[in-house]
Structures are given as structure tokens and as C-alpha cells.
Design brief:
The protein is an alpha+beta fold. It has 3 helices and 3 strands, in the order E-E-E-H-H-H. A hairpin with a 2-residue loop joins strand 1 and strand 2. It starts with a strand and ends with a helix.
Length: 82
């Protein structure tokens, strides 16, 4: 976990962040965005049209209340299944 991070961009190299005025690259294969309390699933059909198989979990699947435990559980179970 990184504190005080500003997310700059995501590209083929990974996730670019800045922290304490220093810019750095996190070489990652996947990025999970956890933000807001409104379901935002409109990207799923676009990803499916590209032949990808997105998985909706947490608030993207059902945003009824602040329930990080459910989202973490769903993410852990999905990760284990993949």
C-alpha cells in the first residue's frame, strides 16, 4: 500500500504514479480501480466487444452501501478462481 500517491497514467509499461514529487513506474499487468459508490459497468460491454471477459465485482456489480468486505471477498474469490 502506498500513501500520498497521485495516479498519473496507465500504459503498456504499467501504472505511472507520483509520490512526494517523485515519478515512478509500477510494472503491473492488471489494475483494479476501487472508487466511488455509483455502479460503473458501462465499460464491460465495450471490453466484451473487444473479445475480453471483464468480471464485475464489488460496487461495479452492486452499489448498495459501503461494503468493502464484500468487494474484497469477491475480488479474492475471483482471483483464486482465475
Amino acid at each position: 500500500m502506498l500513501a500520498g500517491v497521485r495516479y498519473e497514467r496507465i500504459d503498456d509499461e504499467g501504472l505511472w504514479v507520483s509520490q512526494g514529487g517523485e515519478r515512478r513506474l509500477l510494472a503491473v499487468d492488471n489494475v483494479v480501480i476501487c472508487a466511488g459508490q455509483e455502479p460503473r459497468s458501462e465499460l464491460a460491454p465495450e471490453l466484451e466487444s473487444l473479445g475480453l471477459r471483464p468480471h464485475l465485482i464489488g460496487g461495479a456489480k452492486l452499489a448498495v452501501e459501503l461494503d468493502a468486505r464484500r468487494a474484497i471477498d469477491e475480488g479474492a474469490r475471483l482471483g483464486a478462481a482465475l
